[in-house]
Design a protein that fits this description.
single chain, 102 residues, alpha+beta, Ybab, Chain: A, three-stranded antiparallel sheet
């Protein structure tokens, strides 16, 4: 394989990675705990929080610790989903090549 073709393939891969990364950054991931009476957190793939929903019953002062725990679980769940999706989609393009920052 000549260098020119290798460079063209690298550029094509770079374009595909950029497109996938942009799509992932805009994808919404949802973390939920406590079912319909709990907490829901929605984040974008770039970890920007876009929505937090808290059931009214959790807003009572005596539920403070429970609410804090539920928020942590929901946030972590959404972040874990975003991370797994990014790894799966980027891995399909890079096919095991380790690229710093990806």
């Amino acid at each position: 394989m000549d260098m020119k073709r290798l460079m063209e393939q690298a550029q094509q891969m770079q374009k595909k990675l950029k497109k996938i990364e942009e799509e992932l950054d805009e994808t919404i991931y949802e973390g939920t705990t406590g079912g319909s009476e709990g907490v829901t957190v929605k984040i974008k793939g770039n970890n920007e929080t876009v929505e937090i929903s808290i059931h009214d019953d959790l807003l009572a002062k005596e539920n403070k610790e429970e609410l804090q725990d539920m928020l942590l679980i929901a946030f972590n769940s959404a972040v874990d989903q975003a991370k797994a999706d990014r790894e799966q989609k980027m891995g399909a393009i890079t096919q095991g090549i380790s690229i710093p920052g990806m």
